[in-house]
Every structure is written in C-alpha cells, then in structure tokens.
Amino acid sequence: MKYLNAAGILPEHLLKELQKYVDGEILYIPKASSKKEWGAVNGSRAFYQERNKEIQRLFQLGFSVNALAKRYGLAYSTIKKIVYG
User: Fold this and answer.
1) What is the DSSP string of 18-85?
2) How many CA atoms are closer than 13 Å to the CA of 1, on its beta-carbon side?
3) pTM of the model
4) How confident is the model at residue 54, as a pLDDT?
5) Which of the four, 19, 31, 42, 51, has the lowest number of CB atoms within 10 Å?
C-alpha cells in the first residue's frame, strides 16, 4: 500500500470536505471491490460446514455430545451449538 497526496488527486471541493474530518491525518480508504465472506478464498468455510453436517448426522444416529466432543477435539459447548443451533 502506498500513500498518495490527496491534494494531487482529489478535486478541491472534496479535499476541503475531507479536511473537515481528518485535517493533516492519514486516512485509509478501502477498496470498492466487494469483500469475500470468511473462509471463501481458502476453503475453510466449506470444510467447517461439512464437518458440522457430519457432527449433526452422527448426533442423529445416537452419538452423545461427549463422544462427539472427544472425537472431533471440540468443547462440549461447541458441539451443543452445532447440534442444537
């Protein structure tokens, strides 16, 4: 990320308006492109969704919350959220 001098790229009326809010400070302007959802890029979202479906399926088959917590290495409360939530 590089810094640009706003005086060199913004119209004067817009620069004066911005100076009312951030006079002499550094301002970050995020990209206009839409942000992707958590885990959408690296596949972790799909991984956890699939894991949670499997946990729900096993719970319906009769596995206890304690057994699922041990099997998946998750907290008892986390398993409860997955199966009851």
Assistant:
1) HHHHHTTS------SSPPPPTTTTTSHHHHHHHHHHHHHHHHHTT--HHHHHHHHT--HHHHHHHHH-
2) 6
3) 0.59
4) 98
5) 31
Whether 56 and 82 have beta carbons less than 8 Å apart is answered as yes
The closest alpha carbon to 72, from 49, 54, 46, belongs to 54
Query: Phi and psi (nearest 5°) for 47?
Result: -60, -50
Please report, to the nearest 10 degrees, the dihedral formed by the alpha carbons of residues 68, 72, 73, 77 taken in order. -50
pLDDT block averages, 10 residues each, the chain of length 85: 88 93 88 80 92 98 97 97 95
What's the Rg (C-alpha) of the chain? 24
Residues with Cβ < 8 Å from 36, sequence gap 6 or more? none
